[in-house]
Amino acid sequence: MYSLTEISARSSELVPLIAALDAYQNALYPPASQHSVALHALAEDRLRCILVRDENGRAMGCGAVVFDDKQAGEIKRVYLDPDCRGQRLGEKVVAALETLARDADCTLLRLETGIHQPAAIQLYQRCGYGFCAPFFPYQADPLSVFMMKALS
């Protein structure tokens, strides 16, 4: 049994999850194709974060949505510990991020992921995201995939 909770981007529980995500992506992509963001460095009013905990309260996953000034947001830093993958938790994280975005009057969510992460691409497709062109601040990158979904 897992629970999803909204937390601050400054929570110490995010640190090992983000470190694991960075290590995973460092093995897949050169630095120029890594588009990570330091969540703790963003203004809290432009950001909402989700933490996944197991039945023992251990942090097992995370995700964030970063808002721009035009009722759009970007999904960032979605990660699940390998021990809890394959249980449809990714869909729950994305759904929770979409709820946070709707609550903030966001009408569009976008994301960037990498071509070497087919499970992530499939997750976002299952959640209704379609492919799109690069969006600000990104430029075309042969190792990147850009996706978006209009929120109702």
From TrEMBL:
Pfam family, one: Acetyltransf_1
Keywords assigned: Acyltransferase, Transferase
Annotated SUPFAM superfamilies: Acyl-CoA N-acyltransferases (Nat) (SSF55729)
Single annotated GO MF: acyltransferase activity, transferring groups other than amino-acyl groups
Protein name in the entry: N-acetyltransferase domain-containing protein
Domain N-acetyltransferase: 7-152
Naturally occurring in which organism (per UniProt): Duffyella gerundensis
Domain of life: Bacteria
Residue intervals passing through the bilayer: none
PROSITE patterns: GNAT
